[in-house]
Write a structure and sequence with these properties.
Its EC number is 2.7.13.3. One of its GO terms (biological process) is cell wall organization. There is one protein chain. This protein is an alpha+beta fold. The protein is built from 20 helices and 16 strands. It has three domains: 209 residues, Orthogonal Bundle (Arp2/3 complex 21 kDa subunit ARPC3), CATH 1.10.1760; 128 residues, 2-Layer Sandwich (Beta-Lactamase), CATH 3.30.450; 164 residues, Heat Shock Protein 90 (2-Layer Sandwich), CATH 3.30.565. The protein has a six-stranded antiparallel beta sheet, sandwiched between helices. A hairpin with an 8-residue loop joins strand 5 and strand 6. Helix 4 crosses helix 7 and helix 8 packs parallel to helix 12. The longest helix has 59 residues. 41% of the residues are buried.
Length: 585
Amino acid sequence: MIHLIPLMIERVGIVLIAAFLFSQVKSFRKLIEQHQGGRDKVLLVLIFGLLGVVSNYTGIKIFPETITGNTWLMEVEPDSAIANTRIMGITIGGLLGGPVVGIGVGLISGIHRYFLGGFTATACAVSAVLAGGAAGYLGLWRKKRKSITAGYAVGVGVSMEAIQMLLILALTDPFSRAFRLVEVIAFPMIVVNGLGMLLFMLIIQNIVREQEKTRALQTTKAFTIADRTLPYFRKGLNGESCQEVARIMLDLTEADAIVITDSEGVLAHVGSAEDHHKPTKGFATELTKKVLKQGEVIMAKSREEILCRNEDCPLLAAVVLPLKVHGETVGTLKLYFHDPASLTEVQQQLAEGLAKLFSTQLEHADAEEQLKLLKDAEVKALQAQIHPHFLFNSINTISVLCRTQPEKARELLQELSHFFRSNLQGARNLVIPLEKEIEHVKAYLSLEQARFPDRYEVSWEVERGLEARLVPPFVLQPLVENSIRHAFTRRREKGDVLVRITIEGSDLHIRVSDNGNGIPEEKRMILGNETVPSKHGTGTALVNIKERLDGIYSHRARFAITSKVGTGTEISIRIPYESTGGLQS
């Protein structure tokens, strides 16, 4: 029994070498992702099925009196059996790919083992299929609750091997011969396959960690570029700003040339091929025209695909991405490479992320330009209340989370995009649905609470059926912002903010209350009626809200502040209920 262990470790080594080699292949690393399509599952079945076949061929032949472990098994004599590592590949395949993959791998390995022969052929074939299906369901169950750890995989693998021993005893005749075989192989196979499962899962976990690290680094780089290019994109798509943006991107990416265009021509080209890819009306390549027309990302990995008219152009690969403002393609971002191999999936994902960020920045710039043309002075004043450093603080927060919580960072990036998009869209409308105003506030709170997770808690009580009611934009967000910024200063205990929206009589009643420091009476009497200069703010937002309510609802809306020092503050807005359903945005 003991002298079988070194031979089994050799066989495990073969499978681990194969696993390591697979881990260096990009397509295999992609398959390790938790969400696999039909094609990916087929590939997993083939890969782990192949490992199962190799395990059969490299098995150790067990005769009644001898053990033979130095040959490539092409067949097994009727009076012999084999000890191998087949269960290891079957279990890993099932855990990673689910029941379909597990059963598929089990069928390939089991059928192959059956045709090799030997007195345990039937039991081994049946156990292979059962182990694959069981591992698949156990893996699926585990993923719904938490990630699959190496310890969990070892436990499943050892259990599957033990079940195989029981099936050999149950399905093999005569029982005495099956029992003698299990006495010899059970302990070495269970122990060594358990060790193999542990090492195999460590390789898989290393792949996952490297992928997460790559995403985090990529996201950090994207935010660095976005942070440095923001001042230029705020000026819109023009030659001067785009030239600076292209230079920044060339320094911070691996591209050999960066090009930015609008819908009419090239605005900036920095890097290789500047001699003929010059800023001009019209385009040097047909590829740009395709992206502008289709509004989709296009990749090219040859001079012919780039469609450059210059035969000496050194640029042999490119990814061209649309820049969109409010869903309309207004320009393109192009990354060019000398070597097609340099245009990796990582570079493509980075470029796509930057294009989305740039599009958001352009939407921001477009909205800022439109703000200058708005006749509604109060809306412009409220827009100015958004703190200049809010975007940068949010980006810095997300950048930190990229290293520790990449999923949380991606969620906050979506909230940041949603916040600014809602902010810009609200500036174009006199009124918006209440649910949009609430979404805007919640996006803002997600970003602020990421920076100060334990300072305060915001609760919501919104009466059903009010989601579609129309309210002026930027009414709720400044009230909540005032509470979290001013109510809890110099306090250690956690603050509470309650937003309550109900129908009371003929009014839509909005109340934002907190248990904060409260406002002195002399200051409370002024707030909302005039600005109050202080180091923490001026109260302009409250003045603007009150004046806008008076203008929109002909002085029928009500704005009130109640407060007690040391107890808290409540700001109340009453809007005529019939007006909230009749105004047009």
